[in-house]
Amino acid sequence: MKIEIAGHDAFIIYFADNASAEVSALIQAAVNNLKAQMAELLIDLVPSYASLLVIYDINLCDHFEVLKRLNSALSNLSSVDTVSGELITLPVYYSTESGPDLTVIAAQANLSIEAVIDIHQQGEYRVYAIGFAPGFAYLGEVDPRIASPRLTTPRMKVPQGAVAIADRQTAVYPAPSPGGWNLIGLCPTRMFDPDKTPTMPVQVGDRVQFKAIDYDEFVFLGGELDTEL
User: Which of 5, 16, 77, 185 could pair with 163 in a Cys bridge, judged by C-beta atoms 3.0 to 4.6 Å apart?
Assistant: First the structure.
């Protein structure tokens, strides 16, 4: 574990060189400890794959005091439970009309489309980071049999709720946007809603499972099929 200055009011803590379930659990434990022991000094905590950005209030403390408190709060993180965070189930309408890249992934993997869908929904994915757009959760890791590189040419528009794969990551697009991930289905669950508390159904450290639903249930849950896919 390494702590470095990240600005006049911030430190960044590096927990490892690469992401893993164990590292993610360690970061979540650090977040919990820092909130419990330093809440009055903190402005924000921003967890990522293998690091944690700590932003503090310079009106309440100085650099040296924060560093001392950080070291104290991080001193007992050697043993953590990797099965931490909430387990969230997200429904997905998998089909070639909602996931136009299913056919390509199946051909690359020498699998049937049904097998690709089964493999994707059998996985349990850790929320490693949230970024790119509000509610865009980077989930890992995808089974190597269906891992697929980003598109050579990104789409100009990916619909809200698109479930996608890029390398060994998977995600749900929270809003219409450009994107270069491989689309395999649509999720009717809103991944970001500013009018709700909490605004997102998942947080860093949570675990996600996908559950296949049919078109009728997809529409019943509020999903809309993008005819431009």
Answer: 185
